[in-house]
């Protein structure tokens, strides 16, 4: 089958960038990204491409090139489904907040709504691609809905999980480590796989396109995220031992990372991992393992989350203890709120939990993040339901200028590893702060020796 029209349901952090790159690399394919969220679609269509709803280095340029040529953003979901041969489902799959599996399982209601809508609208055979991260064997449920509520047309379900990381989405998409496509082992299934392979083959080398059965593909995505997060929890566990023993976690990470079997990436100790996916996907994995009665498997992976929660709490406790066991009424300036640098995404950011702890101790928090607004910060805290909106407003505010934000502060806490923090005039910041002036570097990005020479009391993670 020759693919000429693709539709993607979900114009979020995955759907938007992924489809923009497909459109850029495949000018012969018309790509339409649809979403129920009108505001989000309007932002994707904003005349000034700088106002697209997601900040990713290089993304505005890709969208600018393809938009209006063969890349379209729309709220007309039915029309896009009807016209496309291939439909990607890239909607959110959050942790369930109610009922069976609450707090653990993935909530698949948005996936099911998409499946039912595709079934209702499709009048010709379609390939349906799972782009969202899904529990293993979800394709079975999607197939059952499509086959039982459809118009008698044939559907092939493929699993094509996305491995991009935020902040590097465009380069990850342009030069992926691999593309994974899982499909049915039947002749029809193999045809569908080949059709999708031919799309990626426009820019990805053949030896990087891996095809498997559907279940392996679905489970590989959860496994990859679990392994990545596990490395961070492992190094973070060692960071506390380093602090007790005089070892330095950066040196330990370098020493073990030079072992080619371990590898050097993803060994940066931190205040804890954030982001919309690691926690959600591991909880989902734990839930799946438990549902098969595999309690040891479940406990093993759950420990990654337990360690991460501990690391966030440990950071806020350390701030309180170091500031003479009280932060009540003290000004603490956060540098960074996003869950990592080069993104405006704050979902599950460690900063939210550290702020919440310190606010419960009545600290006055001031936040500077180059890409995150006060509105977003307040919404993130509101979601925790620890305090009312007004109570939060009394304890936290955002500033546009980092120097202004640090003035009069008792302490600075680095929560996100934005490059610009390294370039600040730290003498100027020191001069404006209360003394002794403390810095808690939750990302180990600042030059500790230089800061100590200025007069700061500097504390990093794991040394
Ligand atoms: P997101 O919340 O940014 O975007 C999802 C979009 O889907 C929203 O805009 C929502 O309005 C829309 N939507 C939901 N139901 C819809 C429906 N029935 N019809 C039309 N639109 C609908 O989520 P995201 O970060 O893009 O993640 C999407 C999926 O991709 C998740 O399963 C996630 O685990 C996975 N994933 C995310 C990343 C990442 O970096 N964020 C990376 C790899 C995989
Ligand atoms: C992660 C994976 O890296 C992607 O492959 C995957 O597609 C994605 O999840 C997903 O499924 O959503 P992402 O969460 O965007 O991507 O970003 P990461 O670079 O993985 O960082 C996650 C968190 O871990 C961040 O808070 C980051 O600061 C932290 N981290 C990362 C560390 O604390 N130390 C490290 O060494 C690396």
From TrEMBL:
EC annotation from Swiss-Prot or TrEMBL: 1.1.1.22
Keyword match DNA-binding: no
Pfam family, one: UDPG_MGDP_dh_C
Catalytic site: 277 (nucleophile)
Keywords: NAD, Oxidoreductase
4Fe-4S among keywords: no
Catalytic reaction list: UDP-alpha-D-glucose + 2 NAD(+) + H2O = UDP-alpha-D-glucuronate + 2 NADH + 3 H(+)
Gene Ontology biological process terms, A to Z: glycosaminoglycan biosynthetic process
Gene Ontology MF term list: NAD binding; UDP-glucose 6-dehydrogenase activity
Transmembrane segments: none
Taxonomic superkingdom: Bacteria
Functional pathway: Nucleotide-sugar biosynthesis; UDP-alpha-D-glucuronate biosynthesis; UDP-alpha-D-glucuronate from UDP-alpha-D-glucose: step 1/1
Binding site for NAD(+): 10-15, 35, 40, 91-95, 132-133, 166, 277-280, 347
Domain UDP-glucose/GDP-mannose dehydrogenase C-terminal: 333-448
Positions with a binding annotation for substrate: 162-166, 221-225, 261, 268-274, 339-340, 443
Biological role: Catalyzes the conversion of UDP-glucose into UDP-glucuronate, one of the precursors of teichuronic acid.
Protein family per UniProt: Belongs to the UDP-glucose/GDP-mannose dehydrogenase family.
Protein name per the record: UDP-glucose 6-dehydrogenase
Organism in which the protein naturally occurs: Flavobacterium muglaense
């Amino acid at each position: 089958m020759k693919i000429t029209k693709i539709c993607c349901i979900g114009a979020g952090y995955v759907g938007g960038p992924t489809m923009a790159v497909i459109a850029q690399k495949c000018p012969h394919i018309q790509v339409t990204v649809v979403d129920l969220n009108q505001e989000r679609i309007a932002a994707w269509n904003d005349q000034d491409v700088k106002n697209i709803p997601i900040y990713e280095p290089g993304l505005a340029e890709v969208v600018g090139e393809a938009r209006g040529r063969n890349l379209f953003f729309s709220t007309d979901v039915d029309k896009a489904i009807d016209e496309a041969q291939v439909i990607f489902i890239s909607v959110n799959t959050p942790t369930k907040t109610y009922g069976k599996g609450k707090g653990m399982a993935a909530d698949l209601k948005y996936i099911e709504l998409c499946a039912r809508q595709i079934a209702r609208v499709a009048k010709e055979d379609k390939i349906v691609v799972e782009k969202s991260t899904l529990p293993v064997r979800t394709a079975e449920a999607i197939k059952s809905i499509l086959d039982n509520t459809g118009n008698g047309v044939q559907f092939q379900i493929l699993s094509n999980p996305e491995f991009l990381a935020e902040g590097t989405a465009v380069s990850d998409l342009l030069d992926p480590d691999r593309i994974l496509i899982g499909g049915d082992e039947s002749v029809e299934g193999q045809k569908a796989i080949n059709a999708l392979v031919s799309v990626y083959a426009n820019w990805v080398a053949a030896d990087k396109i891996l095809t498997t059965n559907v279940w392996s593909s679905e489970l590989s995505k959860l496994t990859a995220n679990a392994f990545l997060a596990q490395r961070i929890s492992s190094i973070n566990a060692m960071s506390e031992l380093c602090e007790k023993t005089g070892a330095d976690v950066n040196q330990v990470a370098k020493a073990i990372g030079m072992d080619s079997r371990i590898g050097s990436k993803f060994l940066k100790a931190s205040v804890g991992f954030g982001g919309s996916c690691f926690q959600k996907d591991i909880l989902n994995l734990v839930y799946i393992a438990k549902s098969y009665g595999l309690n040891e498997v479940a406990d093993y992976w759950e420990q990654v989350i337990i360690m991460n929660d501990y690391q966030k709490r440990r950071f806020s406790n350390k701030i309180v203890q170091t500031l003479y066991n009280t932060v009540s009424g003290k000004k603490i300036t956060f540098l960074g709120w996003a869950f990592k640098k080069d993104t405006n995404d704050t979902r599950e950011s460690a900063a939210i939990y550290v702020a919440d702890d310190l606010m419960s101790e009545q600290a006055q928090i001031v936040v500077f993040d180059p890409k995150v607004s006060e509105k977003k910060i307040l919404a993130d805290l509101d979601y925790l339901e620890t305090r009312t909106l007004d109570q939060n407003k009394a304890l936290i505010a955002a500033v546009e200028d980092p120097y202004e934000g640090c003035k009069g502060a008792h302490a600075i806490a680095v929560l996100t590893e934005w490059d610009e923090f390294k370039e600040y005039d730290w003498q100027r910041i020191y001069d404006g702060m209360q003394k002794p002036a403390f810095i808690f570097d939750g990302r180990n990005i600042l030059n500790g020796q230089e800061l100590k020479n200025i007069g700061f009391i500097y504390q990093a993670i794991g040394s």
